[in-house]
Automatic annotation (TrEMBL):
Source organism per UniProt: Mesorhizobium captivum
EC number: 1.-.-.-
Record domain FAD dependent oxidoreductase: where: 41-429
Protein name: FAD-binding oxidoreductase
Pfam families noted in UniProt: DAO
Domain of life: Bacteria
Enzyme class: oxidoreductase
Keyword Oxidoreductase set for record: yes
Record flagged with keyword Oxidoreductase: yes
Keywords from the UniProt entry: Oxidoreductase
Transmembrane segments: none
Region listing for Disordered, in residue ranges: 1-36
Gene Ontology molecular functions: oxidoreductase activity
């Protein structure tokens, strides 16, 4: 089984187009020189958040350059579970995760693990995570996430239409599965909270559950079907297609590894690994799991940690999965993609330096074989990516302490889901417009 490792969506690589390769004059945005705007806007990070921010700014006629060490959607944004999880509004700290921690940590290949050697470094983040789960924070966190999800769905539907990528959207719903009545009953408070905000679902069993996904193991006694849940044909292909639209509007890409950023009243300076520098009038940091390191250059200390996620993408023929299947008790999902069947999820809080442990991918695949008898596990490709996560489960979206710099990172499991909303919000902040959402819960200085 071939193994592929992602290094997150931090700094990036790829070669900018020459002027001769640019878009037609009818679509091309005016250059910075033509508008008298100096060096324009730089975006550090070519994952889905950076791509969407660049697209919204290019649509507004701004000159934008995206910097990334690898390419457009080549790292963490390429290997996610492909869900537009607009109904996933419960903050992670309130999902019973604290209650599950002792059981999960006892299994080194289970839904969540922490390498023992990493625990001392992780402890401050875990304490913040535990505090974020306190009842007094619940309503505010939930309301913030609900507002973000409503904006995310509206903005994604609009962006899919404008970019011509709507055919990549799949509206088949999701099916969450339970192995016991006790597990099902434990899920009910969370569904009641979703119902408060008008999120549709229905609990299923027997023939109805079997019709939603034929071939399930009889170990599953009940399920919950969410008809409004959406997925995409392939997250990497979607990101590249949205970027192609941005390029037509004049957005540019530069393949570069960023070492450091600085900012002052005259703009931002980006220092590259090759010793050269780039100037920008304004700067947006969308560097995924590496973003807090760049923010630290500017005096902002943001407690970001890295959830290392694993998956195996099997050939399309591995099993006829009708819609995304969610095994919340085991911390993973199975998603049918245009390019294969993706079995993945789980959380390893282990930072960005440790080598991947693909035993986690194999453990999920073994469970998938039990859950879907007849699944062909051969021919898969293993992958690991870095989810940039903050202890209160909300991203950082807002202005840095330094002038002209903005942050958009820390979306955890919801980067793809919330990318278009984040792009809209960053556009409004950069242009000095009033955002459609109260950004107080997302401000960088909240910690």
């Amino acid at each position: 089984m071939a193994a592929a490792r992602s290094r997150g969506s931090a700094d990036v690589q790829g070669n900018p187009k020459s002027p001769d390769e640019g878009p037609s004059s009818a679509l091309r945005a005016p250059s910075p020189r033509e508008r008298g705007e100096g060096e324009g806007i730089a975006i550090v990070g070519g994952g889905i958040i950076g791509i969407c921010a660049a697209t919204y700014l290019a649509e507004a006629g701004r000159s934008v350059t995206v910097f990334d060490r690898t390419g457009i959607c080549e790292e963490t944004s390429s290997g996610n579970a492909a869900a537009f999880a607009f109904s996933d509004v419960l903050p992670l700290a309130h999902k019973g995760m604290i209650r599950q921690l002792p059981k999960w940590l006892a299994d080194p290949l289970g839904p969540l693990t922490i390498p023992p050697a990493y625990l001392p470094k992780l402890l401050p983040w875990l304490i913040r995570f535990w505090r974020a789960g306190a009842a007094k924070h619940y309503e505010a966190s939930l309301a913030a996430q609900v507002g973000m999800m409503k904006l995310a769905e509206a903005e994604w539907m609009g962006l899919l239409d404008r970019s011509g990528t709507r055919p990549m959207l799949r509206e088949d719903g999701s099916l969450e599965l339970y192995e016991s009545e006790a597990e099902f009953r434990a899920s009910l408070p969370g569904w009641a909270e979703r119902e408060r905000f008008g999120i549709g679902f229905r609990h299923v069993e027997g023939e109805e559950m079997a019709s939603l996904q034929p071939g399930l193991s009889p170990r599953f006694v009940k399920g919950t079907f969410v008809p409004g849940w959406k997925t995409v044909a392939d997250p990497k292909l979607l990101g590249k297609a949205v970027w192609a639209y941005a390029e037509k509007l004049g957005a540019r890409f530069e393949h570069a590894r960023i070492e450091r950023i600085e900012a002052g009243t005259n703009g931002a300076t980006i220092m590259l690994a090759d010793g050269t520098t780039r100037k920008a009038k304004q700067l947006v940091v969308t560097a995924g799991a590496w973003s807090h390191l760049l923010a630290k250059n500017l005096g902002d200390r943001i407690p970001l940690e890295t959830e290392r996620g694993y998956n195996t993408t099997l050939p399309v023929s591995a099993f006829d999965v009708k819609r995304q299947l969610i095994f919340s008790g085991h911390g993973f999902v199975i998603t049918p993609l245009e390019t294969g069947l993706r079995v993945g999820g789980a959380v390893e809080l282990g930072g960005i330096e440790r080598p991947p442990n693909f035993g986690r991918s194999k453990a999920m695949l073994e469970k998938a074989k039990r859950f879907l008898p007849g699944l062909d596990p051969s021919g898969g490709r293993e992958w690991m990516g870095f989810r940039p996560s903050l202890p209160d489960s909300l991203p950082v979206i807002g202005a840095a302490r330094a002038p002209g710099v903005f942050y958009a990172f820390g979306h955890g499991h919801l980067g793809l889901t919330q990318a278009a909303a984040t792009g809209r919000l960053i556009r409004d902040l950069v242009l000095g417009q009033t955002p459609p959402l109260d950004l107080t819960p997302f401000r960088p200085q909240r910690f």
